[in-house]
Design brief:
- 66% of the residues lie in helices and 0% in strands.
- The longest helix has 29 residues.
- The termini are far apart.
- 0% of the residues are buried.
Length: 124
């Protein structure tokens, strides 16, 4: 068994690179903050959103349907990502890999069926 022992001096290049990167970030932020123009006005400090003037309260309630659809999209999209490596290695995985993917797809479809039965995707 080959166990490599690392000395603290082996990490010096990493710390130097980290220090240089952090130093560059700090110096850049300080310089741009100090040399940039400082002109404030009511028009300039007014919030700007896509060219549309702000109206009303920004805390207006939003339908939960938007969030549910977004979460479901991410959930099922990530599930599809797991299918790609399986498809690439389909022949090497053999029957066991096929059975595991059938189980995975069954659980995925059961979740999708549950979502449809609950009416989450129905818009009014």
């Amino acid at each position: 068994m080959n166990t490599a022992s690392y000395l603290p001096s082996d990490y010096i290049p990493i710390f130097i690179q980290l220090s240089l990167a952090l130093g560059f970030i700090v110096v850049t932020m300080l310089v741009t903050h100090n040399i940039g123009p400082k002109r404030h006005s009511v028009k300039k400090d007014d919030p700007f959103e896509c060219g549309i003037p702000t109206q009303g309260d920004a805390r207006a309630p939003i339908s939960i349907k938007y969030f549910l659809v977004a979460i479901l999209f991410v959930l099922f999209d990530v599930e599809v990502i797991f299918m790609y490596p399986w498809a690439v290695n389909f022949m090497q995985l053999g029957q066991e890999g096929f059975i595991q993917m059938v189980l995975f797809m069954g659980l995925l479809l059961a979740g999708f069926y549950y979502v449809i039965r609950k009416g989450v995707l129905k818009w009014e």
